[in-house]
Amino acid sequence: xxxxxxxxxxxxxxxxxxxxxxxxxxxxxxxxxxxxxxxxxxxxxxxxxxxxxxxxxxxxxxxxxxxxxxxxxxxxxxxxxxxxxxxxxxxxxxxxxxxxxxxxxxxxxxxxxxxxxxxxxxxxxxxxxxxxxxxxxxxxxxxxxxxxxxxxxxxxxxxxxxxxxxxxxxxxxxxxxxxxxxxxxxxxxxxxxxxxxxxxxxxxxxxxxxxxxxxxxxxxxxxxxxxxxxxxxxxxxxxxxxxxxxxxxxxxxxxxxxxxxxxxxxxxxxxxxxxxxxxxxxxxxxxxxxxxxxxxxxxxxxxxxxxxxxxxxxxxxxxxxxxxxxxxxxxxxxxxxxxxxxxxxxxxxxxxxxxxxxxxxxxxxxxxxxxxxxxxxxxxxxxxxxxxxxxxxxxxxxxxxxxxxxxxxxxxxxxxxxxxxxxxxx
Length: 426
Ligand SMILES: NC(=O)c1ccc[n+]([C@@H]2O[C@H](COP(=O)([O-])OP(=O)(O)OC[C@H]3O[C@@H](n4cnc5c(N)ncnc54)[C@H](O)[C@@H]3O)[C@@H](O)[C@H]2O)c1
Known about the structure:
Elements: E1 6-10, H1 16-25, E2 29-33, H2 37-44, H3 55-65, E3 68-71, E4 79-82, H4 97-106, E5 115-118, H5 126-137, E6 153-156, H6 166-172, E7 175-179, H7 182-192, E8 200-204, H8 205-236, H9 240-247, H10 270-277, H11 283-307, E9 316-319, H12 334-345, E10 351-354, E11 371-373, H13 376-382, E12 385-388, H14 393-396, H15 400-403, E13 407-410
Parallel strand pairs: 1-2, 1-4, 2-3, 4-5, 5-6, 7-8, 9-10, 9-12, 10-11, 12-13
Antiparallel strand pairs: 6-7
The structure holds nicotinamide-adenine-dinucleotide.
Nicotinamide-adenine-dinucleotide binds next to helix 4.
């Protein structure tokens, strides 16, 4: 199999840029493509426009070696990796317009023989949709060389890296590569082997799409169980953290930790792709989503109830906005949903928001007179009710003295939770 020397990565976000950088630092010529000129300029200057440990070193190194550059235009390449967003629409069906837009950029550059990999998390059938979309634009090409038309090799390779550990997990995680043809899967496997030391497992495209969705749904269902336990425990006057810690001493029980809800670009989104594909059959997956989506409102109600006995001047500390600990990613964050709801419903109270990983308030909170972004210490000092929404290390380090006399609503158990034998990050 020929070595692939020149790769275009379409979409230079949390997934595309690390993939571009790791290929480039392994000697492949990589052109990153993004519609955002600021992202393109940052990468060409050897900089990273978001926070991800070790990524900066890789990007700066690859750019200075001349192996990584960025552009708003899709170039000719031997392989294309598409890592654009796949959000859901109002009706929770997947929005494939970003993939279609990337495909429109790639189609005119193809000559036949190229490898096209969809890395975006995709509903079942999205890889086939991308392939057909390109073949509609390029009827002179085929997927398998039929009618003597040159073939393009189309595959899906879902990404399962953990934000905050992306540069490590890109190398060490096992990968699933699903091809529209067996040759496409094998060729994609060959490309990932450039940097991936994990096992690379081949299958067909739709199974690879479902594998990623199923992994995240598995997490979602298990988190929903923990979240439901936290609500039940509150009703029964039980400490849910102690309950889970004790139950996890059973050798075959591993309950996850509850939180204020489920956020992020993956776990809160991907199960809906399965529900949309098989609505009648996905009863548990749908219910888990609903349980997790209901948790922010439950937390909000707890905060409102805690303020009932306090004077009108009592202030609220909101600790953390990110969707999980020690990252700056605010997407689909339940913490923002709760903070925004508090800010709106308690317009006569000060809401002191602390999020050490961002420099400014997100749009849901910006411009509100009663909301201010301050340090963790300042937020706690000023407030009578402290709402812990993210278990950042900086939040866990708050001294008990600072919290003395305050009402603490700790949705993560960040200030009280003892490590459990099977503690798993949510
Ligand atoms: N972030 C994660 O942890 C994670 C993990 C696994 C899978 N995924 C999946 O990977 C995909 C990408 O996610 P992300 O987190 O990198 O998103 P992101 O928003 O960080 O990055 C996407 C990038 O694509 C660019 N873009 C949009 N349309 C484009 C186009 N037509 N051409 C070129 N660039 C375009 C955007 O400007 C942005 O820079 C999604 O499907 C997501 O579900 C993300």
